[in-house]
Structures are given as C-alpha cells and as structure tokens.
Amino acid sequence: MSKITAAITGVNAWTPEYKLTNEELSTMVDTNDEWITSRTGIKERRILKGEGLASSDLGANAIKGLLKKKNMKAEEIDLIICATATPDMLFPATACIIADKVGAKNAFGFDLMAACSGFLFALDTASKYIETGSYKKIIVVGADKMSSIVDYTDRQTCVIFGDGSGAVLLEPNEEGLGIQDSILKSDGSGRDYLHMKAGGSLRPSTHATVDAKEHFIYQDGKTVFKFAVTNMADVSADIMERNNLTGDDIAWLVPHQANKRIIDATARRMGVGTDKVMLNIQKYGNTTNGTIPLCLWEWEDKLKKGDNIVLAAFGGGFTWGSIYLKWAY
Ligand code: UT7
Q1: Which of 33, 120, 225 to mutate to test the pocket of ligand 1 (most atoms within 8 A of CB)?
Q2: Where do runs of H (alpha helix) occur along 166-250?
Q3: Which site from 44, 66, 158, 181 is most exposed, i.e. has the minimal number of CB atoms within 10 Å?
C-alpha cells in the first residue's frame, strides 16, 4: 500500500466588508499613508463590526463557504482545529463554537495557540492525524478578530492588524502530494516583545489592568522585526536545503503577511522572485492566523497540481516555521 500523505483539497476564506483605510487611520492617530505603506506595505484592513460577532463567526463563514465549494456536508467533518490568538472566550475552545455554528455534529475540535504561526502549527498537527490514518476529513481554520485586542490610540500597532479568516480541508492522498515536510520552532524567551499583558493567569483582569490598557496587543516592533526577518528567512532556506530545492523549483512562497519588508527578505534568501510570492498585505494587513489561508484562497486559481509550495510564518512566542507541500489539485 502506498504511503498516505495529507493534502489540502479545498480552501476558502472570509473577510468582513468594512475597510479601514490608511486615510481613516490618519484621522484616529498621528500617522499617514506614506509611512504605513513604505514601512509595512499595508493600504487597508478589514474590520468585523457589529455586536455579538467574534472570531468564531469569521471562522464559521470561511468553513461554510468551503463546504459549499466542496459540496460536502458538515456532518462529514471529523475534526476542526482552530488556530486563533483571539478566541471568543478564554474557554471553551473557539473550535467547539465554530463546529456548533457550522453544524459539524460529528467532529471534535480544539484550538491551537501559536500566535501568527498558529496556522502552520495547526496544519502540521492535522497532517499527522491524516498520515496515521486516524481521520479522513480535517478542517484547519485560522480566524482572528484582531480588532478586539488592538488599541486604536497606539499608532505602533493599530496600523498593522486586521480581521479575517481562512480554512482548508485536509484529506489523505496516495499520489505523494500534499504536505512533504515541516520545520516548526518556538522560543518563549521572546514573550516580552509581543504579548497581551493581562487577562491570563499571570495577571487576571482587574480595574487596574483595564485602566493600564493591558488587554491590548503590546509589541516592541523593532525587536520583533529583527527576529522575524532572520528566523523566517532561515527556516525557509533550511526546509529548501533539506528537500534539495532551489529557488527555481519553488512555484510559490506563501508567507505570513506581517510586513512586506520581512516577506521580501525571506524571498531573497530563498532565491525566489517576487512574481512567485503571494502578497495581499496591502488589502488585509496582518490577520494573524488568517494570512496564509487568505493567500491560498486568493491564488487558488493559479495553483497547479504538483506545484512546490513553501509556507512560512513568524509570530509571538516567539514561534516560527515553514511547511513544504505539493499542491494536490
Ligand atoms: O505578525 C507577528 C510578528 N510581527 C511582526 O513581524 C512585526 C515586526 N515589526 C514591524 O513590522 C515593524 O517594526 C513596524 C511596522 C511595527 C514598525 O516599523 P519600524 O520601521 O520598525 O518603525 P520603528 O518602530 O522603528 O519606528 C520608526 C519611527 C519612530 O519615530 P522616531 O522615534 O524615529 O521619531 C516611531 O515613533 O516611526 C514612528 N512610528 C510611526 N510614524 C507614523 C511608529 N509607528 C508609526 C506610525 N505612523 N503608525
């Protein structure tokens, strides 16, 4: 019997309609379109407006569209892994809420937290369940309502993040397509540079933590940038070397969309031309766990069976990693 690999067999994404432009942000904080565009590449981001809407709604919408595309019933899903840094609640898991909202009655679900690298970590985790033959239909969904933890008076962070979600269906493949290799890394000593200070067991919520704005994203941008540039490029070069791939062999680089300058540095290091780099940061900003599936979804029509694709990410933790896959359809 041939070896079972885990292949992406469908992708969908969902973003809210509201566009928060650089111009509108310029009326909220001391910033301007020129600074944001030249330092990050972002022009606008989507914001989920409306009472009672959360990351689970972003994720559920992405999955509903995916099921429709695949002509699949929600009851067929075995497992939902939700990568999110903005769960609806500290508990229960957002994956459980999503499963309920899409009607995935036979699925179990759990959340996976690796900040901006979460989608890669979740995809890798899901691939093991497929490779071992444990499950046959797994949905990996990255969903983040970043606007719920952004301080819109802090120009250092509010220009970067946006809301969005994307989901992939992972199924067994016997043609050797799908996920080939992965390198995942974390280094918790980086936690001081990118985090939310309060609301966890270390600093439970109090009036004081709210007054001190400790329930928003804190980021030391310069330090994170330095680590992101080096580590995302290194890990992507490493996975290429390990699999004897040159820049010419790569059809697409799918990078986490945190900063265009980090993406450019990664592509240069891999020897991959900009025409092979999926880039939509200008439209969505950094949607954390949504960035990579949002790219795959936008580029789906251009992907060909057998294409060598490298996914790469860096995020809070620190966490970072790279996955090499062969597109399966
Ligand atoms: O996805 C998770 C991982 N996260 C990342 O990978 C993000 C990594 N970091 C970055 O992308 C960048 O560091 C930022 C985009 C966050 C910041 O860009 P930077 O080129 O590192 O800027 P900086 O923080 O060094 O700030 C340069 C200047 C400062 O002014 P002075 O001190 O030189 O006068 C800032 O106060 O730009 C100022 N500044 C701004 N000016 C206009 C900072 N934010 C803004 C702003 N508009 N929004």
Answers
A1: 225
A2: 207-211, 221-242
A3: 181
Q: Is the model's pLDDT at 258 over the cut of 70? A: yes
Catalytic residue among 82, 158, 256, 289: 256
Domain boundaries, the chain: 5-176, 180-326
pLDDT band of residue 18 (cuts 50, 70, 90) is: very high
Where residue 117 falls among pLDDT bands split at 50, 70, 90? Answer: very high
pTM, whole model, 2 decimals? 0.97
Query: Closest ligand 1 atom to the C-alpha of 262?
Result: 6
Q: At what angle do helices 221-242 and 260-270 cross, to 10 degrees?
A: 30
Q: How far is the CA of 221 from the centre of ligand 1 (A)?
A: 6
Domain 5-176 listed as CATH 3.40.47.10:
yes
Which ligand 1 atom sits nearest the alpha carbon of residue 313? 1
In the structure encoding, which two tokens stand for residue 289, read together?
């766990």
Does 170 have pLDDT greater than 90? yes
Confidence band of 2 (pLDDT split at 50, 70, 90): confident
Q: In the structure encoding, which two tokens stand for residue 101, read together?
A: 């909202």
Contacts of 165 (CB under 8 A, 6+ apart): 13, 14, 15, 55, 58, 59, 61, 62, 141, 142, 143, 144, 287, 289, 290, 293, 294
- Computed over every residue of the chain, the mean pLDDT equals 97
Q: Do domains 5-176 and 180-326 have the same CATH topology?
A: yes
How confident is the model over 224-239, as a mean pLDDT?
96
Residues contacting ligand 1 via CB (< 6 Å): 31, 35-36, 39-40, 116, 155-156, 159, 221-222, 224-225, 228, 258-259, 262, 286, 314-315
Topology classification of domain 180-326: Peroxisomal Thiolase; Chain A, domain 1 (3.40.47)
Q: Is the pLDDT of residue 91 over 70?
A: yes
| Residue 17: how many other CB atoms lie within 10 Å | 8
Residue of 22, 61, 82, 116 with catalytic role: 116
